[in-house]
Amino acid sequence: MPGPSREQVLAPETLDDLAHLAVRRCLDLARPPYSESPEELTRRYLTPAHMAAVDIVQRWMTHAGMTVRLDGLATVIGRYAGSNPDLPPLIIGSHIDTVRNAGAFDGNLGVMLGIACVQALGQQGRRLPFALEIAAFGDEEGSRFPQAMLASRALAGSLAASALDGADARGVRVCDALGAAGLPTRPDIASLKHPGAIAYFEAHIEQGPVLEAADQALGIVTAIAAQRRFACRFHGTAGHAGTTPMALRHDALTAAAEAILAIETYCAAGPDGLVGTVGTITAEPGAPNVIPGEVFFTLDLRAPNNADRDEAADALRVVLRNIAKRREVGFSIEDLHNLPACPSDDSLSDLLADAVRSTGGSGVRLMSGAGHDAMVMADLAPMAMLFIRCAGGISHNPAESVEPGDVAAALRAMVSFLHRLGDHYGVNQ
Ligand SMILES: [Zn+2]
C-alpha cells in the first residue's frame, strides 16, 4: 500500500514548532554557562562554555533519538540510523563555537536545524535509506587558536597533527586545552577521519544582505568564494608638509588612496561576485606635518571561482604598479593567503533548489563570501549549502537576528530535501 504523501505526513504546525525550538535553543546557548561572559556571547573552542554546549547538544541529540559520540577534537556527532545499513550516512553539520561578542545564530542555527530534521523524522517514525549524522563542530571561527576549522579538518581527514601544538594568546596549546576539557591530549588524528559520507549538508545564516535584497528567505550556495589576500606597500619620500611644493612630492598615501579607489572601481565593474576590500591601512611616519613616506595596506579579493579571482589579482597588480610609476613612488605586493574556491555539488544543489521551491521560495542562488566548515568537508563528500536570510545581513555581531518564519521555511526545505535524496537512494520508510 502506498504510504501517505510527504505533505500529509507531518502537519506544517509541527515543523513550525520544531523551527521555533531550534531558534529558542540558539538563544539559550547565547547565555552562561554556554557563554564565557554574561554580558556578551563568546564561546571559544574547548573553553568550559564550549564544553557546556557540547554537553547540552549531546542531550538534545539523544532526546531526538540519536546515538551520540564525541570525537577526539570535541565534535559532537549524533547518528540516526537509516533503513539500508550498506549506505554511508548524510552528514548535516555546522559549528557551535563563536567569535567574541557574537550573534546567537552563526553556526548554531545549522546544528539546531539538523537536530530538528531528526526530530521531525522521529516524530513520523520514519527512516531515510541512509543514516543521518548531525555534526556540531567546535572550532570553525578560529577565535582561540591560530588555525581555524580544526574540528572539521579532523573529520575530513585534512588536519596535520602539528595543529595540536598551536597555542592561544595565553600560550595554552590545543593539546593542553583538550586535556583540560577532559579529552586525550594527543588523539590519533588519522583515526578521526570519517569513513565516508554520501554528502555533507550545511544550513547557515547568510551573513550578508543578498537574500534580504532579493526578498527571499532562503538561497542555495553556488560556491564558497575563492580568496586571496595581499600585503601592498607604497614607498614614497617623507618630507616637510610646509616646505615641499605639491609638484615635488612623492606622497605614498595619495598613491595608496588612488590605488584603493582603483581597486573599488575595478571590482565594481568586474564579473559577478567579484569583491575587493582594503581593510587595513597604515601610513608612516604618521605625523600631521609630515608627507607620508611609507604606506601599507591589505587587499582581500574574493570571487566565485579561481579564474575570476586570479584575473582580478593580475590586473590589479598592473593597475597599482602603473599608479606608483606615474606618481614616482615605489610599490611592492606580497601574497599572504590563498584559498581556492569550493564549488557546491550541482546535482545536490538542484535537488535543494527543488526542495526550496516546493516550500514557496524561488530557489535563488548565491555565492558564499565567507568560509564555512562545508569547504573543508567538501574533501570528504559532495557538499551543498542552504543560506537563511538574516536581518540587515548583520553577523559576527550581537545584533544578528533571523525571522522565525524564515527558519521554519528552512526546516521545511531541509526535510523536503532529505526525502528527495532518500527517494534517490531507495524507498523511504
Ligand atoms: Zn559560521
What labels describe this entry?
35% helix, disordered N terminus, five-stranded antiparallel β-sheet, Alpha-Beta Plaits, 12 helices, alpha+beta, binds zinc ion, nine-stranded mixed β-sheet, single chain, 429 residues, 2 domains, globular, Aminopeptidase
Q: How is this structure best described in words?
A:
The protein is of the alpha+beta class and 429 residues long. It folds into two domains: 6-224 and 342-425, Zn peptidases (Aminopeptidase, 3-Layer(aba) Sandwich), CATH 3.40.630; 226-339, Alpha-Beta Plaits (2-Layer Sandwich), CATH 3.30.70. It is built from twelve helices and 16 strands. Strands 1, 2, 3, 4, 5, 6, 14, 15 and 16 form a nine-stranded mixed β-sheet that branches. Helix 4 (108-124) crosses helix 12 (404-425). 49% of the residues are buried. Mean pLDDT is 95; it is low at 1-8. Residues 95, 106-107, 140, 204, 372 line the site of zinc ion.
